[in-house]
Amino acid sequence: MGFAGCYLAPLGMTVYYAFVHSAFDQTYAGTENFRYVAQNTYFRLGLQNLLRLGGCMVGAALLVAFLLAPLLCRHKKMALPGMAILLLPLLIPSISAVSLWEQVFDTNSLLSPLSSQCALITLYLWKYAGVAAVLLYTGLNKIPQDVLDAAALDGAGKIRTYVSVRLPMAGGYVGGMVMFLVMFLLRSYKECYLLFGDYPSPKLYMIQHYMNHQYMKMNFQYVAASAVILMALALLTYGLCIVLMKRKRGAVV
Predict the structure, then answer these.
(1) pTM, to two decimals
(2) Per-residue pLDDT, 142
(3) CATH classification of 2-252, choosing from 3.90.580.10, 3.40.50.1820, 1.10.3720.10, 3.40.50.2020?
């Protein structure tokens, strides 16, 4: 009942408003709102930046996780304090981290777009790459030692064993990492807003900026249509991750 009241009901209302002319004229509009949003220059700019910056963020976070997880496996005595350190940034409020990042980077996105992009990417890595590494470490730690010993007997070195044996066997956890990172990528607007304000550089303009601006204009139908499109992209990404996880698991078996 709590899930239905706090999540499903607002979601249903969002989908409903995406198919009406406005909050004041609730007649059926078909796909008119979606066509308007898809043709809007600022929505396209936000989507382009989300895909571009999102690819950099998720790719860099995966690389960091792939490097840190085997270190935790190799040094078992340091694994527990290491995981605590890696999980700590997730518990620190974004506003506290943003105040530090503003001292390190030039966050005037109009004058220094490159520095601003680095600030957003490194803040994302600091908060979420460590959690991804802990998830991967959990998967790697569950691989039977017999499998690793057999790979060593076959002449596989540590790197070859890690790439060809351990990562494929932890494919489910890798897919979970990707889903986790994408989920928080779609929430990175909070840090972007705190760093650069309501009107950032065009290179840092997100879909959520467009949604916020339309909300201030009381164009709720366009906000709802944008939210439905964003939700569809997220579900598509999660579905692809699940399919890849199942295929990888079947290949390993």
Answers:
(1) 0.85
(2) 85
(3) 1.10.3720.10
